[in-house]
């Protein structure tokens, strides 16, 4: 049976440390760290995330500045709100919740965020820094994956890593972070030929495709580390209730993998934690230069 990589427990541990740091810092400053989350319209993928973020901010002593705008809000209005948040001295981190409605140019908005407040690490400056191996704000989900690997002493150096998915939010920055840790990295995607066979060669397999239970036992090398980034809400056939499942068919992969992250309780809570971590980093940098 695979070792379970408990992202939830690690998230709690890091958040306790962050809470202590924030408490200490706030004594010497006139304000706590601030995080602004901008959401346009309603997307089911976003609901759990927003809820967990707000709870965590409250617990840690981070001020939340939420803006939930209707789905038909214009590009210009959203841009104006980003400009205001860039100027607002109480705000250290800004996150624009993805995906955005079709009429919105997401790239233009992400590019508009002050790179020093880019808690999601998606601005070209921060992504460019990642490519060049310079310090900067790092994308939360892949940073969360790296923290889990580190906590469990899973060393990427020299290993074959396959990242399934090539999004700006997860796949591309994930591949770069694994490369930075000296893994030999392959990015696979919907056009990749012989996908299962390729995945079966991975020592570290990261699934970030958004397809419930897609990765079965025949995709996984025995003993491999399997990181499930998928957060898919599905309707349970028997009970009719909705529940979260990953991209990995956990029940069939757990017996043969060496280590595996569950959903829920794996990378999701780590994503939230890295967002808070980035917000605190920006806060300190904005005070100390
Ligand atoms: N700009 C942007 N950055 C993101 O990082 C981003 C985004 N937009 N849009 C939506 C997705 C989704 N996402 C989640 C993160 C954590 C949980 C999470 O905490 N999940 C818990 C379970 C939550 C529950 O039980 O409902 C877990 O996996 O254990 C969920 C979803 C971040 N995203
Ligand atoms: Mg794709």
Description:
- β5 (160-164), α7 and β6 (184-188) form a beta-alpha-beta unit.
- This protein has helices at 7-28, 44-60, 75-87, 106-112, 124-132, 140-151, 171-180, 195-199, 250-253, 267-288, and strands at 3-4, 34-40, 63-69, 93-96, 160-164, 184-188, 204-207, 225-228, 232-235, 242-245, 259-260.
- It is an alpha/beta fold and 289 residues long.
- The longest helix is centred in the first third of the chain and has 22 residues, at 7-28.
- The chain is globular, with a radius of gyration of 19 Å.
- The chain contains 10 helices and 11 strands.
- The protein folds into 2 domains: 32-115, Leucine Dehydrogenase, chain A, domain 1 (Rossmann fold, 3-Layer(aba) Sandwich); 140-268, NAD(P)-binding Rossmann-like Domain (Rossmann fold).
- The strands form 3 sheets. The protein has a 6-stranded parallel sheet with strand order 1-11-8-7-5-6.
- The structure holds 5,10-Methenyltetrahydrofolate and magnesium ion.
- 5,10-Methenyltetrahydrofolate is lined by residues 45-46, 48-49, 52, 95-98, 120, 140-141, 169, 231, 244, 263-265, 268-269, 271-272.
Short description:
The chain has 289 residues and is α/β, with parallel strands linked by helices.
CATH top-level class of the largest domain: Alpha Beta
Inertia-based shape:
globular
CATH architecture term of the largest domain? 3-Layer(aba) Sandwich
Q: From the helix content, strand content and strand pairing, which structural class follows?
A: alpha/beta
- Say what the CATH topology of the largest domain is: Rossmann fold
Sheet with the most strands, sense and barrel status:
6 strands, parallel
**Cα radius of gyration in angstroms:** 19 Å
The spatial strand order of the largest sheet comes to 1-11-8-7-5-6
Secondary-structure element order, N to C = EHEHEHEHHHEHEHEEEEHEH
Task: Compute the number of structural domains.
Answer: 2
Continuous helix count: 10
DSSP helix fraction: 40-55%
- Beta content comes to 15-25%
The CATH homologous superfamily of the largest domain is named: NAD(P)-binding Rossmann-like Domain
Unreliable stretches (pLDDT < 50, length at least 5) are none
Ligand names: 5,10-Methenyltetrahydrofolate, magnesium ion
């Amino acid at each position: 049976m695979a070792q379970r990589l408990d992202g939830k427990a690690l998230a709690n541990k890091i958040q306790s440390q962050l809470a202590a740091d924030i408490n200490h810092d706030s004594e010497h400053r006139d304000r706590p760290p601030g995080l602004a989350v901008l959401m346009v319209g309603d997307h089911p993928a976003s609901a759990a995330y927003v809820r967990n973020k707000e709870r965590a901010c409250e617990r840690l002593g981070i001020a939340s500045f939420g803006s939930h705008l209707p789905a038909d809000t214009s590009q210009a209005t959203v841009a104006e709100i980003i400009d205001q948040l860039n100027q607002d001295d109480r705000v250290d981190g800004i996150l624009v919740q993805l995906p955005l409605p079709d009429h919105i140019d997401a790239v233009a908005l992400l590019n508009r965020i002050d790179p020093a407040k880019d808690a999601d690490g998606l601005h070209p400056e921060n992504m460019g820094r990642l490519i060049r191996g310079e310090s900067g704000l790092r994308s939360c989900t892949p940073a969360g994956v790296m923290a889990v690997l580190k906590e469990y002493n899973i060393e990427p150096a020299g290993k074959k890593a396959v990242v399934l998915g090539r999004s700006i939010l997860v796949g591309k920055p994930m591949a770069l972070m694994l490369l930075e840790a000296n893994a030999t990295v392959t990015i696979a995607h919907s056009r990749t030929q012989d996908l299962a066979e390729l995945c079966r060669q991975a020592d570290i397999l990261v699934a970030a495709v958004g397809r419930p239970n897609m990765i079965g036992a025949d995709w996984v090398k025995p003993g491999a580390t399997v990181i499930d980034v998928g957060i898919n809400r599905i309707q349970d056939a028997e009970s009719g209730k909705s529940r979260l499942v990953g991209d990995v068919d956990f029940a069939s992969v757990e017996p043969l993998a060496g280590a595996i992250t569950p959903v829920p309780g794996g990378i999701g809570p780590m994503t939230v934690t890295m967002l808070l971590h980035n917000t605190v980093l920006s806060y300190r940098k904005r005070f100390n230069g």
